[in-house]
Structures are given as structure tokens and as C-alpha cells.
Input
Amino acid sequence: MENMRAEPVADGQPPLPSADVVSKVLSQNISNTTFLKNVGIPTRSSKSQSAGEEVLRQELTSERQGLVVLYQQVEELKKKTEAAEEYEGIKKQQDESNVILMNILNLNTPDTSSQP
Output
């Protein structure tokens, strides 16, 4: 126990609480952890559940981040689609205007074949 308590901790990390040190030592040496559970000291199995919960939380966080990215991509595609539709509408109007202008020019141009 003293060795575990004397182990150096990383910068910014609090030292390991005494209850955790006792729990680790007892759970390594005792196969029946009923005493530890009754006293309220977490055993490794409950910590592994916490680790499992942490893994699930990390997965959920990464999925949410992925959804945010997908949502942004969908919004970007919507904007591009709207811009493309607007461009097509303008192009169609321009083509119609060109046809009208060509008809007007053809009306104003004297027909050389009808003159003697």
C-alpha cells in the first residue's frame, strides 16, 4: 500500500485517494469483495463499468460530432442546390431573351430575297 501511495503522479493530477489505494490492494488480494461493497469502497468491477460507461459516452460524443458535420454538409449541399437552380433559371431567362432579340433583329432586317 505504501508503494502505491508513494508513486509519483503526473503534473496537474491529484494524488490517488487512500480509499482507492486500499480498494486496489484489497481487490488484488481478496477474491470475495462483499466486504468492500458493504463498506462502500468501489471494486474493480464497478470501476470497469465506469470505464465502460466512459467508452459509451465517448462514442456518443463522437457520433454527435459526426452528426454535426453531416448536418453542415447537408446545409452546404442545400445552398449549392439552390444556387444551381437559380443559375438554371437565369440561364433559361437569358436564352428566352436571346430568342426574342433574334426575332426582333430578323424583323428589322430587310429581306434581300423579296427585293427585285
Notes: The chain is about 75% helix and 0% strand. Residues 44-108 form the longest helix (65 residues). The chain has a mean pLDDT of 80. The chain has one domain: 14-108.
